[in-house]
Amino acid sequence: MPVPQFWLDFLVRREYERVYRHWTVGILAVTHGLAWFDRFLLLGILDDIRREFNADFQQGGLLQTAFVISYMIFAPLFGYMGDRYNRRYLMAFGVFFWSLTTFIGSYMPSYSTFLLFRSLVGIGEASYSTIAPTIISDIFVSDNRSRMLALFYFAIPVGSGMGYIVGSTAANLGGNWRWALRVTPFLGAAAVLLIIFILVDPVRGEAEGKSDVSVTSYREDIKSLCSNKSFMLSTLGFTCVSFVTGALAWWGPNFIARGAQLIRKSSSVDAPSIALVFGVIAMMSGVIGVPLGSIFATRLRATHPKIDPILCSVGLFCSAPFIFAALCVANSNTLVVFLLIFFGEVALNLNWAIVADILLYVVVPPRRSTAEAFQILISHALGDAGSPYLVGVISDFLKDTIHVGDYHDDAVVDLTEFKSLQYALFSTCFVEILGAVCFLITSFYIVEDRMKVEAELQSNNQCSLPDDSRRTGHHEG
């Protein structure tokens, strides 16, 4: 008996939709990894940049801070547009813009002009990072959404680690640190083509059966987000994660290299190799930590509805002692330092996908891009926008107060700089504990806030049905 044509059409349509959804997540994840790849290229070549521009610790940290400041300033603008306009074109513009400014920046002759173009890169990345997670939320729900978000945020450690690796490798092969920044434009061009010609912008709220999304004013959006306890508290917790991630990523390789110099009593330590190893560790800790957090959350959520913020809190409480121990033994055993940082960052990376999932299920669809932008603004303004620069300022200040001997002795100078950077980085451990407390408090409100969103979506969906459908409880078609 032949299979009816309508059934064949249905199967083809379902298979197409399934492939389309997974292709969309794949494109978003790869481009997300490229964004972090571009962001962390500098970390493998930071010492080379400082030497060429004769920059101190503060100026070295300012390169990342300037990038993040422009990133967080423009995030609300793109969040507003992402809730109202075609998200595909906004993301394509962002990728094109950051790739172009990275390439042009590689030719800048002075510190001030190079700093300017690094800040411009943040504008392009702001348009992508605020919008991409909301597209995933519009094509997946429940545990499927959690798994797809885990894949999306899995790209962060992979991209970051590749940034370290490719940055230092390209600089060595090209004989100049500037060649490291000329890798991004070619990868960015491919990403732009994928976004424009393959990725499709879904209807907002489509996965939750809400295709009639009504957009409220920006003032109402912000007022609603500020009164959302789970969103605000999880944002504060994620701000602490951002602070620690930014400080360790920016100063970690430099600090470990200085500790290795003290161990060997020599200044001939291979800093690029240390940056390379640090990048591999950052990548592998994320490869394990991000999906691990998502797996725990999806398996425990049915029986423990508060598990998401609790897992984030546990991750930070576990990470802090590992990072503290790594900072303490950096001038004793480099291998142990790398091992402790690995475990500390695995625990820290448990947060990424879970925090994104929390935002998407405690905020209604027409406000999600705005919520992403708001979270980016807060987490970067109080997190990694200032942490690299703040650690540099504290370190420079402590160099003038720590007295370990004769400052005319090179060995004394090396020890002083190591100690000052070590004491400055201890601040990350206290911030991790603060973040853990914020997530713990979030667990008191998470169930109530999630139920509010589900009730609002259900109410709107019922209101959008024809009168006969509402009376019978069935949707026509």
Automatic annotation (TrEMBL):
Location of this chain's protein in the cell: Membrane
Major subcellular site: membrane
Membrane-related topology note: Multi-pass membrane protein
Residues passing through the membrane, by range: 23-42, 62-82, 89-108, 114-136, 148-167, 179-200, 231-251, 271-298, 310-332, 338-364, 423-447
A Gene Ontology cellular-component term: membrane
One Pfam family it belongs to: MFS_1
Residue intervals of the Major facilitator superfamily (MFS) profile domain: 24-450
Alphabetical list of Gene3D superfamilies matching this protein: MFS general substrate transporter like domains (1.20.1250.20)
GO molecular function: transmembrane transporter activity
InterPro entries recorded: MFS, MFS_dom, MFS_spinster-like, MFS_trans_sf
Record keywords, A-Z: Membrane, Transmembrane, Transmembrane helix, Transport
PANTHER family reported for this sequence: PROTEIN SPINSTER (PTHR23505:SF79), SPINSTER (PTHR23505)
Record family assignment: Belongs to the major facilitator superfamily. Spinster (TC 2.A.1.49) family.
This protein's name: Major facilitator superfamily (MFS) profile domain-containing protein
